[in-house]
Amino acid sequence: MASRWAYENWEKLNGWPSGARRCQASTLRTRIELLEYRFAMKAIRIHETGGPEVLTYEEVPTPEPGPSEAVVKIEAAGVNFIDIYFRTGLYPAELPITNGQEGAGIVSAVGSDLTSLQVGERVAYTGVHGSYAEYAKVAADRLVKIPDTIATKTAAAAMLQGMTAHYLTRSTFTLGPDHTALIHACAGGVGLLLIEMAKKFGARVIGTCSTSEKAAKAKAAGADEVILYTEQDFQKECRRLTDGQGVDVVYDSVGQSTWTGSLDSLKPRGMMVTFGNASGPVPPLAPLDLTKRGSLFLTRPSLFAYISSREDLMRRASEIFQWIEDGDLHIHVGGEFPLSAAGEAQSQLAGRKTMGKLLLIP
Questions:
Q1: 336 in helix, strand or coil?
Q2: What is the reported pTM?
Q3: Residues 69 and 145 reside in one and the same domain
Q4: In the 3-class helix/strand/coil scheme, how is 98-122 assigned residue by residue?
């Protein structure tokens, strides 16, 4: 667009006196630069799967909205394990893609059919590729308006992990005062929110983590007991803490390394909720193994099945925002990185060096 404007005006500029031509040419160059800045943006792209080194910080065209879409100027993007799964190829995608599935910012453009949003409104979303960028194009029915009382960064940090903790505790297994839950990675972004929600609904919480610092963070969030899996066998300790009975539910985002111990920590008819692969995918399981362990239940849920409808999305997001406003839920931001440092942010997350949520700031 900028180059076409220059072409159409160049002949006129060349016909003017030399002094005026130099002045106007300088103005032309400035306008071209401004137009190029406006119509290009920085983004983190994946052209091939692999380690953090495949994340490339590059310039791409700024997206334009379709009839029922909006363009969001990203102020903060959440860093999540699902971003790593797409980067490594564990979750397949047609490449190239812009990494990231969670963001918040200001609506900068709206589609021709869109009446529910206006330019300048603050919104947040999850479940749409492309948040590791300065701008993202998002279907309007995936966007949630941010309440005035909640900061944009808080909203960015709350969408994926907050609604994950919500569906896990309110839908997958509805926690109540009669339940004991085992929560792995209890000082991580989802783990801390799971603790707060479990305590909100009266459940007992046993958490696992790797360091005393993380244990203190989990205790501060409300965990009743915390097991350092680097020093103790969490399955044996879990049995001890429950007088040999086991727990009602295990929320396991770690995957491979905690799989067997998690199953062996459950009471008869308990539920194993495996919702992440931080240490790698879990091995195959024969259904008869669940029978042998006491007629256990097993589920492998994902957030996007629980917010597939607009109604589910709005119900969960609205409750999360309300709990934040009421002081029942605290969003823990463990670190902020510039957009160009997405690889470092993912490395820290994968290396379990973080507590709380990581954000990228374009």
A1: strand
A2: 0.86
A3: yes
A4: ECCCEEEEEEEEECCCCCCCCCCCE
For the chain, what is the domain count?
Answer: 3
**Mind listing the pLDDT tens digit for each residue in 185-234?**
999 989 999 999 999 999 999 999 999 999 999 999 999 999 999 999 99
State the Cα–Cα distance between residues 146 and 159, nearest whole angstrom: 11
User: DSSP string spanning 118-168?
Assistant: -TT-EEEEESSS--SBSEEEEEGGG-EEPPTTS-HHHHHHHHHHHHHHHHI
Strands 55-61 and 225-228: unpaired
User: What CATH number did the domain enclosing 86 receive?
Assistant: 3.90.180.10
| 150/255 Cα distance (integer angstroms) | 33
**Shared-domain flag, residues 89 and 131:** yes
CA dihedral of residues 149, 154, 160, 161 (deg, nearest 10): -110
Task: Look up tokens 């910080």; give the residue.
Answer: 57
- C-alpha separations of 208 from 211, 229, 259, 270 in Å: 9, 6, 13, 18
Q: Pick from 91, 277, 290: which is nearest to 184 by CA? A: 277
Strands 135-139 and 69-79: antiparallel
Has residue 165 been placed in a domain?
no
Q: At what angle do helices 152-167 and 310-326 cross, to 10 degrees?
A: 110
